[in-house]
Write a structure and sequence with these properties.
With 293 residues, the chain is mainly alpha-helical. Helices cover 75% and strands 0% of the residues. The chain has 14 helices and no strands. Helix 1 packs across helix 13, helix 5 runs antiparallel to helix 9 and helix 6 runs antiparallel to helix 8. It is globular and about 50 Å long. The two termini are 18 Å apart.
Length: 293
């Protein structure tokens, strides 16, 4: 039974990283400002959760009274959205995605400490191998598209927000569709408020802009959040952390397929580094079963 739960968690993790990898391509199709994009996406995600769980029970009332819901859940989710979308407009999307998805290193280390395992040498070595493999990709200039320092800093801030949000999901029991509805709706309201306060409304937004922003909410920033929460409770946090390293690699491949990036040796090195990291962190490791909340 535990093996089946772990396998289901791993499949959910694979689906999550695949959906996340599609985000740079989708974001490249629209011109809406970051927080407006986030507000539309989270609104669509809340509607999806409402429709999918219309007959299910919700513990959302209790969640609203929890400070972690606002700080780590809504705050982490909104921060991840804002900084990532903003960073994508400041340089090469493949490089921005790479910097953002260095967050699994921090997540794996924090998860190990919280689980009482300490800073394991295997996790540190595996993370170092993955990081070393990804560095040539961020330093490459195949496209000649410059990326500002602010873009990299916002990518790192998005990654830190991801860690906070993931720790919130991992620290709770399985969330219902109703719980996700409340979480997404709160993030939509927060994003809309930030848009109104700091961004200029677009003058020539098209139906495609609104449609793709909503699609982001249904897929990469809707269903993917739900499958990620499911995976965190049913699979090894270390293995899931390694899987997320594939996001920038898969994103780069998709960007190549749509003509936004060029195939290069650094991409191959990145793939080998991530694969090596997975082998190091999981080889001869004892089965950990379900991850406790």
């Amino acid at each position: 039974m535990t093996s089946k739960r772990t396998s289901a968690g791993l499949l959910a993790g694979l689906l999550t990283v695949t959906l996340w990898a599609s985000l740079p391509v989708l974001r490249d199709l629209i011109t809406l400002p970051p927080m407006l994009t986030a507000a539309v996406a989270m609104g669509a995600a809340a509607l999806m959760a409402l429709l999918m769980g219309w007959r299910g029970a919700s513990s959302g009332v209790a969640a609203w009274r929890d400070g972690k819901f606002w700080l780590m859940g809504v705050g982490g989710l909104t921060g991840a959205l804002y900084f990532y979308f903003s960073a994508l407009g400041k340089g090469d999307p493949a490089k921005i995605t790479l910097v953002t998805y260095l967050w699994p290193l921090g997540f794996m280390l924090v998860a190990d400490v919280l689980a009482g395992r300490g800073l394991r040498a295997r996790t540190l070595l595996g993370s170092a191998v993955a990081f070393s493999g990804l560095v040539p990709l961020v330093l490459s200039n195949a496209q000649g598209e410059s990326t500002s320092a602010l873009g990299y800093m916002q990518g790192m801030a998005s990654g830190a927000s991801w860690i906070m949000f993931s720790l919130y999901l991992r620290g709770r029991a399985a969330l219902s569709w109703g719980d996700y509805k409340h979480l997404f709706a709160a993030a939509a309201v927060a994003s809309w408020g930030l848009h109104r306060a700091f961004e200029t409304a677009p003058e020539h937004a098209t139906a495609m802009d609104w449609g793709v922003a909503a699609l982001i909410g249904v897929g990469p920033y809707g269903l993917a959040f739900i499958t990620w929460g499911y995976a965190l409770l049913r699979s090894s946090s270390t293995l899931l952390g390694v899987l997320t390293y594939f996001v920038p690699v898969m994103s780069s491949v998709l960007l190549i397929l749509v003509g936004r990036a060029a195939f290069s040796l650094p991409l191959v090195i990145a793939f080998v580094g991530v694969l090596g990291s997975a082998v190091i962190t999981q080889l001869k490791s004892r089965p950990q079963g379900a991850v406790s909340a």
